[in-house]
Amino acid sequence: MKTFLIDDDNLGNYLTEQLLRIEGFSNTIQTFESAQEALETLQQCATETPAVIFLDLNMPIMNGWQFLDALVPYESRLRGRCRIFVLTSSLALADMEKAKTYDLVAGLIHKPIDSEEIQAIRSQLEDEDIV
Amino acid sequence: MNECDVVPIGGYPEQQAEALFFLNQQGEFSHVNEQFTALTGHTAEALLSRSLAELVDPDGAAAVGQVLAYALHGHGLTFDARLRTAAGTFVRFALTTFPQQPAAQTAGIGGILRLAETAQQTDSAVREREKQLSIISRTIADVIFVLKVETAGQYRFLFVNKAFTDTTGLRGEQVVNRLVQDVIPEPSLSMVLANYQQAVATKRRVIWLETSNYPTGQVVGEVCVTPVLGDDGECCQLVGVVHDLTAQHKVEEDLRASNERFRYALKATTDALYDWDIQADTLLWGEGFEDLFGYHLESNPSEFGQWSDFVHPDDAAHTVDTLLNTAHQTTRNHWQQEYRFQRADGTWATVFDRGYIIRDEQERPVRMIGAMQDISARKEAEAQQQRMAQELFAQNADLQQFTYIVSHNLRAPLANARGYAQLLTRLPTDSEAFATSLGHMQTSLEQLDIVLNDINDILSIRDKPAGRQEKVHLSSVCEQVRQNLAETLSASGGTLTCTIPPDLSVVGNRAYFHSIFYNLLANAIQYRSAERPLHIEVEGGCAADGNKVVTVADNGSGFDLDKAGADVFQLYKRFHTTPKGRGIGLFLVKSHVEAMGGRIEVSSRVGEGTRFTLSFS
Questions:
Q1: Strands, DSSP E only, in B491-547?
Q2: How far is A130 from chain B (nearest CA, A)?
Q3: Is B492's pLDDT higher than 50?
Q4: Residue B437 domain flag
Q5: A interface test, pick of B399, B409, B416, B424 with most A CB neighbours within 10 Å
Q6: pLDDT at B129 (0 to 100)
Q7: What is the DSSP letter of B386?
Q8: Residue B345 has pLDDT above 90, yes or no
Q9: pLDDT value, residue B221
Q10: Entry's Gene3D superfamilies (chain A) (predicted)?
């Protein structure tokens, strides 16, 4: 299962990647330190669409929300094939509410992600027959 | 005895005796009775064969002849004549003549003589005049009295009119024939006696004002005393007239009281009242004007410019112009405006001015009465309130910012540390991932420490906004920072030119200025362009408005100002991905600048460079 990690904090990316590997969540994990990079990859290779994207919110140049806005034109292509999980250190309720307004966002997880959350996501994906 | 003798003497013996005389046809006395002798002193014997004309004074002699001729023709007549008595003086008598034996040719003239004073035949014109005088003296509102001047400065009332008794409440008999000193009490007595004395001595009219308390109330009167001179040229009587001025006096008194109230109201008010004569274009000021604004008026009324020249130039259009427009181009009566007005000491007062325009029948403006109220204190209080509201708003914004820091920047390294702690338990201790994760956990904890220090820095600025105030020479601070960063700067291959004049100083906190220069220069080094050697230029000077201005400009990579917008100086906002900044530098710079009452602006172009402009008042 192809997975993208988008976070400008490389410590955060390394941590999430290690946890996902230990849980056997994914065999293909690609990390991006900027949302722009990830966006370009998504635009270029339609075939390489990941099943799951873990997206940080607070990033320079292009933050998580701007990334989600930029994805709107590709929504029809991504719907049902790609689940985006916001992975943030923010506890703000406003962010939780805002996340719900995006169709592509499947959920919001507070950092750090733990094994139970990873298993929950996996079973959710299996139910929807994406894996 | 003939008929002539019998009839008059014996005819009326039981009646009150009259003085009778008889004349022959020539007008000579033929007989007089005892009463005639009693009145005139002339005996019958002495008058026999003397004519009546001889007794009449020469002026009346001609008239007597006519009267006698009239009587001889059978007509009776009464006339006045002055007759010489036996003593030689002339006395006025009324003579009634009638024909005796009218049918007979030889008949003479009979006559009755009476003293003129007791005669019933009084001149009707005189009676009429007396009657009129009496009516006047009774009905006239003015008090009239006549005094007889006696010896030793004594005056006796001879006459008072009805107004006198009405006004004084004294009955006529309580006054007439009594001495003035028995009627008029002190202290009025001394004054009236002095005035009477003056009239008598000078023989001229004396007029004075007198306030007297009578049973009918207080009377204010103009008293006029006129001397009447006797035959000897001395003053024998005084005629007094008191003209009641009480009503007029009351009007004047009311007016005076009203004016006095107005004067005290003027004193009581802190407003500057004015009266603008629009045609003459002059201003009459109440005393508030000088008190309120400290001016000493050279003349009052003053020129219009005494007001218009001191209205703040920025307010003149909506103040002076609208006033002139309202007065001359409209028919409105009310005008009011709030504006700044210069005091004598050059400072500005905020004034609320309200006026009423008086117009003539053609709606032309004639005058405007108004008041300038100094509302500076109120305005200042309002501004203070506004500032407090802004400070509260800013503090609230800071609190929101603080929440943001806690949720993102404090929690991010904490979340990582927790994550690594969890991960480490599941990794083999001898694996490479274990070592890396352990290192990352340490890094996360260090980041946490840095953020906590940042927060401490920020809060310390906020707690003591101004810090220690001193005169800070900017060029020396800049030089100090240059030495601190010298190694980093030369390592980056950059150069720095500082042209701040050595004497340019700003009152503030030296440590803050150090922080400002340090962060700006460090930023410039950090975000230098890879395509050209870095050059930083620091300039300083005084702007036209007196503000001290410092610019820090570099030729670095710059950033897109349109995208960054208001976030440039926001805490933990970054605009570069590499190398990593913490997003606190510019936030601290802005906090320090504003804590010292300054402002900071930025301009930047991607690939060209960035320029920060700081200004301090």
A1: 495-498, 505-508, 535-542
A2: 27
A3: yes
A4: yes
A5: B416
A6: 73
A7: H
A8: yes
A9: 83
A10: 3.40.50.2300
Q: What is the DSSP string of B101-137?
A: STTSTT--EEEEEEEGGG-S---HHHHHHHHHHHHHH
| Nearest-by-CA chain B residue for A12 | B416
Could you tell me if B102 and B137 lie in one domain? no
B578 and B488 co-located in one domain: yes
Same domain, B577 and B479: yes
Instruction: Say which of B411, B414, B440 has its CB closest to residue A14.
Output: B440
**Structural element, H or E, at residue B421:** helix B411-424
Q: Which positions in chain A touch B416 (Cβ < 8 Å)?
A: 9, 11-12, 15, 111-112
We report the CATH number of the domain holding residue B327 as 3.30.450.20
Tens digit of each residue's pLDDT (9 = 90 or more) over B225-262: 998 888 788 888 889 888 888 888 888 888 888 888 87
Distance from CA of A91 to the nearest CA of B (A): 6
Q: Which of B77-86, B98-107, B326-335, B562-571 has the lowest mean pLDDT?
A: B98-107
Query: How large is the angle between the packed helices B510-526 and B585-595, nearest 10 degrees?
Result: 150
> Do residues B455 and B475 both lie within one domain?
no
Q: Which of B249, B268, B289 is the last residue of a domain?
A: B249
Domain hosting B448: range is 380-463
Residue recorded with tokens 């150069």: B495
Q: B166 and B60, same structural domain?
A: no
Question: Which tokens sit at A77?
Answer: 């292509």
Residue B521: per-residue pLDDT: 92
Give all domains of chain A, ordered by start, each with its CATH number: 2-127 (3.40.50.2300)
